[in-house]
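Q: I'm a student working through a structural biology exercise. My instructor gave each of us a protein and asked us to get a predicted structure, then write a short paragraph describing it. Mine is BTB domain-containing protein. I'm not confident about reading structure output yet, so if you can add a plain explanation after the tokens, that would really help. Here is the sequence I was given:
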Amino acid sequence: MPRACEAPRRHKENQTKAEEIESRAQSIVPVRKKREFFRILLWCHRAVIDERLERDRPWDGKCEHKCDREVLYMRPNQTMVDVGKWPIFTLLSPQEIASIRKACVFGTSANEAIYITHNDEVYVFGLNCSNCLGTGDNQSTIVPKKLEVLCGKKITSLSYGSGPHVVLSTEDGEVYAWGHNGYSQLGNGTTNQGISPVQVCTNLLIKKAVDVSCGSHHSMVLTSDGEVYAWGYNNCGQVGSGSTANQPTPRKVSNCLQSKVVVSIACGQTSSMAVIDNGEVYGWGYNGNGQLGLGNNGNQLTPCRVATLHGVCVLQIACGYAHTLALTDEGLLYAWGANTYGQLGTGSKSNQLSPLQIMMEKERVVEIAACHSAHTSAAKTQSGQVYMWGQCRGQSVILPHLTHFTCTDDVFACFATPAVMWRLLSVEHEDFLTVAESLKKEFDSIETADLKFRVDGKYIHVHKAVLKIRCEHFRTMFQSYWNEDMKEVIEIDQFSYPVYRAFLEYLYTDSVDLPPEDAIGLLDLATSYCENRLKKLCQHIIKRGITVENAFSLLSAAVRYDAEDLEEFCFKFCVNHLTEVTQTAAFWQMDGPLLKEFIAKASKCGAFKN
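A: Happy to help. First, here is the predicted structure for BTB domain-containing protein. I'll explain a few features afterward.
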């Protein structure tokens, strides 16, 4: 992948090539009749408009189309996706999250997940319905388990069904499948559930798979030579074999696609779609809601061309449960099929039997998203705006709604039902530090510090600029000609080293890490320096560390430093454990006035009643 700093140069070069191609368009045979021209235009569209450079290679006038539905997020034009937005990933530790390179959440309730690490190790965890985790058993797990058979395979594309079953392809073009197999959707010639990943061999061993797609209970593969193979449940003709008999092994989808080069595939629940290299769209299978876009609602046992899209060049196709979205090379968006939840974005809930252009008043669309297990739709525009519509957290959004998201994946994480991923998600972890992380790293740095504090004979290295920005006490010290402003070393004798170091570190990190006994001293410092937020943090630490033995000591400190909330907390603790705390040394060491005040207040609370 090209470095982010190279992206502007690469972008400019790609844009120049695109302009040159478009300027010659008038003298070239129409796009629909020039396959190579379409491929070039497709490549330039993705590089210039969508600004995603999927391969670090020079432009050579050719476009080897590889239809994996993953995206490499790169700065500055793309925002990295946080897999933590999917609830199931909250089971993982920060270290495990940081190791993820690709991931997919699937299942009827989004209760299963698979992820690939930077070391190309494959892990799964979740509910394991129908053995969909591929762990060799039917046991659920909240602890990730490694799939040894897939480690090192370099997974490039992955899809899943409703059983669920899982199908994926590797960089070498191999296809693996496992999980639910009641309709032979694993392509192994049986209906036995697949308890672990097994390579799909029939008719595919000599082929190189570049993309996979699954419907509810059927599967499809796109090969590098533009052929489509399908298998599994075929009650509505979704396998494209010309009959409604289930297909136990991969079978080439031919008929109208016989001499075509397919560049993109997608599956609805019981329907299938394909885009060929001249931008034409074909559909087959169930059509009861018009999801094939043929102008009628009759099922199709073999591929049929979507004639309404004549004259436009489709780049991307996406299928929802029973609706379809199509994106053209001009950034136009078309939708058709079921519309019960407003998933077509037309402003109504009426089904559409033929493609209808939507978002006409919006800017150019560069990405569309839908998933066969949901009734949600999403789109991203050229400027990075993300829209969503359809079923969104139980609501029916009938028009595209502008969100605050930066990628379409977030729509499915936060609003789809179930909250699955609509594609195999690639996450680029950039090697950089945020401003906050950089500040934290430079605390007590000898190399960059311009000031030292000496406490209990130990030095703490800091930066005047940071202290002035973060603390009013230091701002006054260094801007009001105090003696300390001219010193390179400032002596501190009124606070201990752990306390003062924790204070200075707080100015760099906005957090405090101290045991409760030292937090009292830090509370004293925070009071002296008028650091109210630090006082609250100290009180929180002290509350967590209160015991019968130190309760009266903490109460005394709270009164001394005017920490009312902490004082009330300590008082209630002492009253609730009155017998125990009155037998501690701290109780008898309390000064007279404070002890009298405590007894009087406790008496009013009924602490001494029989």
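A: Here are two points you could use in your paragraph. The chain has a mean pLDDT of 86. The domain at 83-426 is CATH 2.130.10.30 (Methylamine Dehydrogenase; Chain H). It's a good idea to check both against the output above yourself.
Q: Great, thank you!
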